[in-house]
Amino acid sequence: MNYKLIIIVVGLVVCSSMSARANLDCRAALCVDADRSKCLAQGSKFHPKDIKNGVCCDYCEPNCAAVTCLRITEAECMKENGKYLVANPKAGQCCNTCILPCDSVRCNQNIKCPRGQTLMPANPSAKKCCPYCK
Q: Has UniProt tagged this entry with the keyword Signal (predicted)?
């Protein structure tokens, strides 16, 4: 008997049964309605069903579903003289954020004070983001 022919036939049977299973699984799926326009209006990502790849139903993936946020409170932010921004997932901002006044400042690392002045350390709470001469 021709073993190559048997192997090819068995391979075809396995492949066809796997694709038939995927279709059978989707026939049994109970899908929740996913409204494309509502999903996109919320800033989320709409995924249409794709039976060939095993996705049986349309679904809406929230914009911030995979994001883990740090716990930032408004009180802590204000204590550091920061600007507190509340999360706005629709605009792509998934987490509450605190922008500190010195976050965007780059300091000159080679500062040298004139004679008679002392190099003072940075003091962000006094809005002195970089070392300075006094």
A: yes
